[in-house]
Every structure is written in structure tokens, then in C-alpha cells.
Amino acid sequence: MIEVIYILWLRQIKHYWRSKARLLGSLGQPLLFLVTFGFGFGPMYTRASGGADYMDFLAPGIVSMSILFTAVFSGLEVIWDRQFGFLKETLVAPISRTEIMIGKTLGGATIAMIQGLIVLSLTYVLGFRIPDLASLGLGLVFMFLIAIFFTGLGLAIASKMKDMHGFQLIMNFLIMPIFFLSGALFPLENLPSAIYFISRIDPLTYGVDGLRGAIAGISMFGVYYDLAVIGLLSIIICAVGTVFFSKTEA
């Protein structure tokens, strides 16, 4: 079982590493958000918050954004494999579909983590600092859980689709509201009640708040509450994704 999962994981890592354009291109949007929002809205945030640094608030949100976008689009590999016949070969192999799902989820999550770590390193250039190694360790846990949840979500949806363009449209329709309503760019306090309610049922909200609490010391709900919520949601979405994938056809 472990060997099968490792091979599927390694295949995705090799695909990612060989696509240098994908690696570099995926850094453009996070860097744009960091520069434009960080320096554009920074002075307003500092005045409104009584002197707090907006980069401390923004950096965890942009790291989460990078993980979110990379993770959910890992589902494209399932559709790509279906179109070119590799999925059929995998499904008829003497291995369980649960092993396939685990391998693909860990592969997509690892790639998302790498992207998140690259963006996190870029935030250091712009002045963001993590206070200590313990904070970094806890932050890595949140980054991993965000990656697992949204990789599982992307694979679950992809297992029910055959159209690559349709998958991209659905993902864009889902992930933009998920990102903007998560509190990644602005505080959730004093929002209209309807928007606040939607933010509270947004899974990324707890990932962003937990990561921000871990590496920047700014948390609205409490780090361990966020950890429990995003951890439970990750388990649930992986279980749902496994059920969906077990019924998929090549």
C-alpha cells in the first residue's frame, strides 16, 4: 500500500518539477497581491488599527491563497489522465482506489505546500517575520491541512467530471468567493451580518485565521479552535473524495 501511494505521489512531484513554467507562473498572482495590497492598503490599515503592520495581517492570507489555487487545480490531473488513458490503466491495476486517492491527494498537497513555502519566503523580502521556530512549525501544520482539504475537494469534483474546461470554470466559480470571503485580505470584524455568516461557513476562513494566529500572532477565533475545525473538515472531505473516486469510471 505504501509503495503504491509513494509511486503516485512521486509521479505528481516529477510532473510539477519538470514544469518550470508552471512553477514560476503560479507565483505571479501571489506576488502581485502582496505588492499591490501590501503597499497600497498598508497605510490605511495601519491608521485604522492604531499602528499595526498590514503585511503581518496580509502575508498569511496570501500564503493560504497560493496553497488554495494550487491544491484545487490538482484535480485537473484526474481529468487529464482520463482523457489520455492513464486513469484507465491505473483503475484496472490490482490496487484499491483508496490507495490511488491517497497518493493523488498527498501529491497535490505536497505541491501546494511547496508553492506556499515559496510564497512565504517571498514575504520575508517584503518585511514579514515569523517570531520563532515553534510558530513556524504550527504554521506548517495549518498549511498542510489547507492543502489537504482543497486537494481533496478538487479531486472529489474532478472524479465526477470529464470536461477539463468545465472543471476550470466550476473551480473559478468556487474558489474566488472562498478566497475573498475568508478574511485573507481584510478583517472579518464589523462586516454585515450576511457576509460574516458566509465567512464563518467558509472552510478557508479557519485555515487563514489559524495560519495567521500561528505565524503572526493575530487570530480571531483562536488557533486551536481553527486547528480542530480545519482538521475535521480535511478528514471529511478526504472521506467524501474517496467515496466519489471509488465510483469513478475511466
Automatic annotation (TrEMBL):
GO terms for cellular component: ATP-binding cassette (ABC) transporter complex. It is found in: Membrane. NCBIfam families: drrB (TIGR01247). It comes from Methanosarcina thermophila. Pfam families: ABC2_membrane. Residues 21-248 form the ABC transmembrane type-2 domain. Keywords: Membrane, Transmembrane, Transmembrane helix. The chain crosses the membrane at residues 21-45, 57-80, 101-127, 133-157, 169-188, 223-245. PANTHER family: NODULATION PROTEIN J (PTHR43229:SF2). The keyword Transport does not apply. This is ABC-2 type transport system permease protein. The keyword Transmembrane applies.
